[in-house]
Amino acid sequence: MQVRAIRGATTVARNTEDEILEGTRELIREVVAENGICKDDIISILFSVTSDLDAAFPAKAARAEGMDDIALMCTNEVPVAGSLRKCIRLMMHINTGKTNGEIKHIYLNGAKILRPDLVQQRGIQDAVPYDEKCSTTDFDKPGDAPAGEKIRIAIDGPAGAGKSTTARKVARQLGIPYLDTGAMYRAAALKATNEKISYYDPEALERMLSATDISVSFDEKGEQRLFLDGKDAGDSIRTPQITKAASDIASIPAVRRIMVEMQRKIASRGSIVMDGRDIGTHVMPDADLKIFLTASEEERANRRYLELAAKKQMADKEVIKKDIGIRDRQDTERAAAPLRKAEDAIVIDSTNMTPEEVVQAIISNLDLHKDRRKCL
Ligand code: CDP
């Protein structure tokens, strides 16, 4: 008999029995499926959880998966600075005599964290998984960071760089709200379009906005819903026409003033991840962490194309690329709060990175930042 060990890890958003057991079951199923393991081949499973998870014993999930006669053990990890939060890890020992011998370790929901020191020294793409981590920090409800630990993260960058996907995931991992400021400009553009107001008429736009109610609410997962005059705007703000119009009206200083005021008010309430074009430079110049997320124009156009295709909206890749180029120029060349990297922002080029890798690069940088602050 030849014994091999397979590693797996996942993270959960909340310290609840349901989330821990469901997260663990998903992890076990993935490890088993990806490695072609038959249950009889499993010798034992060791689980460990970070110290911020105590609502359930993950081994229970293995029993629920029908692993009744397999030796199981579960331990709580010692807190380590600069680490993942709400993380469940397992090590499954299998008899490879009955499998093809190839081992695939499984990391779900951002659990393949990068080593903070390597992120700095070698660049993000070269970093390797860091698996000896856990955390002392606990954020259970959106916006409910521990007292004195308000966290504000600014993510800026051009269209299609992956800001919203990344920002949403980072916020979810930290258990804090995410504000998509682009959606606010889009909502204003939608209203101007519906009311046939010129995108280039500052006075008319200002008048319109003074009689407009744009509000956001966050559900229990910290996800944003945007309401335009009391109605959920949904996907009506995501059409190509509104995308272009949002960029047009975003160059009007009076529009920006109103939006920035609202964004700062939301930021003052507590922890937040905010993405946009001017967050690190203008809306939250004192953010704890500023990220400037970029990707090649080709890659950004490709992502936007795939996004539209997934929504069954047919589009021409060349047209998308041209539109992105126009928007980039408009956003970087406008006089009012143009898109630019804040001096103290960390640049992440996501061209060859998965969303998970970008998320972990950001979380690692946040932990580094906090560790540095503790040392001051
Ligand atoms: O998702 P995508 O990057 O395509 O766009 P978005 O973030 O929804 O933003 C739409 C437009 O709003 C951008 O092209 C910018 O012109 C403008 N915007 C801005 O000027 N400042 C922000 N903080 C956010 C968006």
Overview of the structural elements:
The protein has 12 helices and 13 strands. The protein is α/β, with parallel strands linked by helices. The protein folds into 2 domains: 3-114, 2-Layer Sandwich (60s Ribosomal Protein L30, Chain: A); 152-375, Rossmann fold (3-Layer(aba) Sandwich), CATH 3.40.50. Cytidine-5'-diphosphate binds next to helix 5, helix 7 and helix 11.
Summarize the structure.
The chain has 376 residues and is of the alpha/beta class. Helices cover 40% and strands 18% of the residues. It has helices spanning 17-34, 59-64, 116-122, 163-174, 181-194, 202-210, 240-249, 253-268, 279-283, 297-310, 317-333, 355-375; strands at 3-11, 42-49, 71-76, 87-95, 106-107, 152-156, 178-180, 214-218, 224-228, 231-232, 272-276, 289-294, 346-349.
List the helices and strands and how they pair.
Layout: E1 3-11, H1 17-34, E2 42-49, H2 59-64, E3 71-76, E4 87-95, E5 106-107, H3 116-122, E6 152-156, H4 163-174, E7 178-180, H5 181-194, H6 202-210, E8 214-218, E9 224-228, E10 231-232, H7 240-249, H8 253-268, E11 272-276, H9 279-283, E12 289-294, H10 297-310, H11 317-333, E13 346-349, H12 355-375
Parallel strand pairs: 1-5, 2-3, 6-11, 6-12, 7-11, 12-13
Antiparallel strand pairs: 1-4, 2-4, 8-9, 9-10
Helix pairs in contact: 4-12, 5-7, 5-8, 6-8, 10-11
The structure holds cytidine-5'-diphosphate.
Residues 159, 164, 181-182, 185-186, 243, 246-247, 250, 276-279, 327, 331 line the site of cytidine-5'-diphosphate.
